[in-house]
Amino acid sequence: MAKSTANRKTIVSNAARDLVRALEKRGFTCILVQDMAAFLQGSKVVPKDVKLVVLPQSVGIPVNNQLGRDLVEQQPSKFRVRQRKNKSDVLSYYDSSIAPPKKTFCDFELISVKYPPPPEYRPELTSRVDGLPVLSLLAIVVDKVNELLEQYDASSNKSDFIQRPPRKLCQTIRTLLPTSGHSICTPTDKSFRLEALDCFIRASALFPEFSSGLTTLIRACQNMKTIRLSRPDGFPVLDVAHFFRGIDLAFESRRELALPVSSMEVASPVSTASSLEPSEKAFSLPDSDATAVDEIKTEAQYRTEVTCLVAKKVVDILQNIGVETALFGSLACHLYGNERAPNDIDIITFPPPGRLMTAEWLKQAIYNGDPENFILEYGKNPNIAYRVLYYRVSDDLAPSNTFHKDKCKVDVLLPGTMNLPFLPSYNIKWRQGLPVVPFSLLLLQKLQGWDDHRRMPEPYKFEKHKVDASDVQSLLQLEHAVPLRFSKPWTNRNLFNEDFYDLSLKRIKEFSAIYPACADGWARLGFTV
């Protein structure tokens, strides 16, 4: 290590220790973040400065300047205000153990946040290393990878961006990934792991150079049965057994990624699925003779089982002809955790490039895949040449009248309809063996349904807006909304076109005015109410 680097390492280490000690002595809770936090957890990149987040203990915002002035007044030999070349002031730490003419100081920044603290600084994502509070290394990796993805989304020439990504940012990510030898503990926070999975899976698909390191993290976050992950040389990268015992992750990836696995116990084999085959979880109903005790089911349970069964059949039929799919509407809401049982199936389809497929053609293809159970009927308006797709619900699936006229409706849509976007495979999520749209898109689509239904002149359609409102309120309370508070994907024009985004802003304000208890939930997601 060069002498200047060794000096800088000494200075930033002493600065971090003295700053934390001074702030904690004054009753503040602080967290070392960014390069300094990564350095303390094994990163080889020596930081040039020290950044700390200062957490408030109650409502109110700590004043950075006042905190800095207090430190300067109390310990002027260590903390001073320095003037940069551009004449701006900056807080600096001076280390008396380093003798001039060598550089004897480093700058530091106190970052204050509002109360309650943002979710990225919750206790589950922090720990103490060498007695100092640091942000989890995994949280730092997520932040850096999200930064790369945001730059990619904002770029006008995406293929050029992939070929020539930002060098400095990529180097930072490379040094943080497990392939560089760091031990990264996976937080127990379920919502954070879901957000991390979305981020890692997408980045791995876009940037192959990171796929090896990201694959390790993907498996660590998604597989409860993984006891210990190791690099090819057998050296363990991370041990997650004690975090995952008893935790229901409830997340299934579109692909199972093969990794070397070693365990103190006997681990189950890891399979590699085809790119067109999702993880299988059949929604088959139990045999009537399989159990000695008859199970009493509610109507809601029957509806849920049948809609999942029908959705699985539709997905399989379309996959067999090369068409990707994603569910939205009430079934997707239920798969994400909404308690209301679904009544029908809404599915968006993504035909392969170069093949012209209309919604009517796709309905016919689904019918042809199982003509004994699917039904195609002409719509109520004889002047419009379209047909409605249903699945016949027989008595062996559910009691009569569980569904209207004992039929489960299947709405098949294409991108562009109802502001639904085209979703590449990395944006399609998998819940209980079924593909669903991203939670952020589902939330604003449900809000759109509420707005459309409340303007309908037909009474039976108008009444649906009450159910939509209830769904929106429930979705805002789900754990999947938590990651959106700091990822804030609303400016992603691949998911939300300009018109849809502008309309959503108006709808959120109107929804908050009618349901004021939800205003805070929207505000936490970054919207103005």
What does this protein structure show overall?
This protein has 529 residues and is α+β, with helices and mostly antiparallel strands. The chain has four domains: 3-134, Beta Polymerase, domain 2 (2-Layer Sandwich); 136-262, no CATH class; 290-437, Roll (Nuclear Transport Factor 2, Chain: A), CATH 3.10.450.620; 444-529. It contains 18 helices and 17 strands. It has helices spanning 3-25, 34-40, 64-74, 137-154, 158-163, 167-176, 190-206, 211-222, 241-244, 299-320, 329-336, 359-369, 439-453, 459-462, 464-477, 481-487, 498-514, 519-524; strands spanning 29-32, 49-55, 79-83, 89-94, 105-112, 126-129, 132-135, 228-230, 236-239, 261-262, 324-328, 345-350, 374-378, 387-392, 407-413, 429-431, 434-436. A five-stranded mixed β-sheet has the order 1-2-5-4-3. Strands 11-12-15-14-13 form a five-stranded mixed β-sheet. The protein has a three-stranded antiparallel β-sheet with strand order 9-8-10, with no helix packed on it. Strand 3 (79-83) and strand 4 form a beta hairpin. It is elongated, with a radius of gyration of 27 Å. The relative contact order is 0.07. InterPro entries: NT_sf (IPR043519).
